[in-house]
Structure formats: structure tokens, C-alpha cells
Backbone:
């Protein structure tokens, strides 16, 4: 009987070894499936999140229509990224518009709408450089409203403001399109 027991034990050892190999193959297959369906997608999503953080607001996130939790998380992240990008672009546009408006206000008299001293000094410098390159001259006319103080003192500042607006309006109609007022 000892030789039979040894053969039976060998068969059991072979069966156990075969079972271990089969389990290892199943585990390897499960690991590969897990790597493809979960780990690689989470790593990709992590890389996209880092890129999003580095860029500030613009990252191209591919669609994931798998319908599982990672797919839904990717779609949510994509939607969030697109919304943030839209809001950022809108804010940047508003900042540009307001900056332009503030620059206009800084160079324009709020009452008459014509250039103030700051605006005129800036434009005169640009025109002087342009005309110097062209070798031509420019003319400058300075207008003074006579007895303006008397208008303010006699009729009040509101009437004086109306007088300034009227003078600016008349001058605006008198200048050519390319003249500066």
C-alpha cells in the first residue's frame, strides 16, 4: 500500500498544483480586467484633474459613456470643467469691457463727452509721432468760453454745465470726422 498512497498523494499534489496555477491565472485575468476597467480610467481621470488644476480652467476631457461610476464621475468632471471655462471666459469678457469703459471714462469729460486733458495729451503724443513720421504738421486750436465764471456766479453751476455742454455740442458739429475735440 505505500506505493499506492504515494501515487495518490502525487495525484493530490498535482491537483493542488494545477488548482494553484488555475487560481493564479484567474487572479491574473481579474487583475488585467481590473486594470483596464478601473485603475487605468482612475489614473487618466487623476491626470485630467491635475491638468485642470494647472491650466486654471481649460482641459479637453474626453466623453465617457460607459454608464458606470467612473464614467459618471468623468462626465460630471467634464461638465464642471466646461461650466468653469464658460464662466471664466464670461468674466474675462466682462473685465475687458469694464476696463475699456474705465479707460474711456479716464480720458473723457463726463459732462460734455469730449476728451479731457489726460485723453488729449495721450492722443496729441500719438498724433505728433505719426505726423513726424509723415513729415507733416498739425494745428491746435484752444477755445475759451468768455465770462464763464459770470455764468456760474449769476445763474448757478447747473446753467454753467448746460453752457459747457452746448459749446461742446456746437464744436462737435463743426469739426471733421478725423479731428480731435
Residues:
Amino acid at each position: 500500500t505505500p506505493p499506492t498512497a504515494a501515487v495518490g498523494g502525487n495525484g493530490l499534489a498535482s491537483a493542488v498544483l494545477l488548482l494553484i496555477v488555475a487560481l493564479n491565472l484567474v487572479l491574473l485575468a481579474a487583475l488585467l480586467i481590473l486594470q483596464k476597467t478601473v485603475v487605468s480610467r482612475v489614473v487618466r481621470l487623476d491626470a485630467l484633474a491635475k491638468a485642470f488644476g494647472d491650466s486654471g480652467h481649460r482641459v479637453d476631457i474626453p466623453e465617457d459613456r460607459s454608464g458606470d461610476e467612473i464614467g459618471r464621475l468623468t462626465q460630471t468632471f467634464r461638465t464642471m470643467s466646461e461650466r468653469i471655462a464658460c464662466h471664466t471666459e464670461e468674466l474675462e469678457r466682462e473685465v475687458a469691457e469694464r476696463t475699456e469703459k474705465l479707460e474711456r471714462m479716464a480720458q473723457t469729460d463726463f459732462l460734455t463727452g469730449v476728451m479731457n486733458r489726460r485723453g488729449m495729451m495721450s492722443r496729441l503724443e500719438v498724433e505728433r509721432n505719426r505726423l513726424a513720421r509723415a513729415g507733416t504738421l498739425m494745428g491746435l486750436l484752444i477755445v475759451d468760453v468768455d465770462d464763464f465764471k459770470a455764468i456760474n456766479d449769476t445763474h448757478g453751476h447747473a446753467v454753467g454745465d448746460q453752457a459747457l455742454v452746448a459749446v461742446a455740442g456746437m464744436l462737435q458739429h463743426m469739426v471733421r470726422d478725423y479731428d480731435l475735440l
Summary: The chain has a mean pLDDT of 88. The helical segments are 2-55, 69-107, 117-134, 148-155, 157-174. The chain has five helices and no strands.
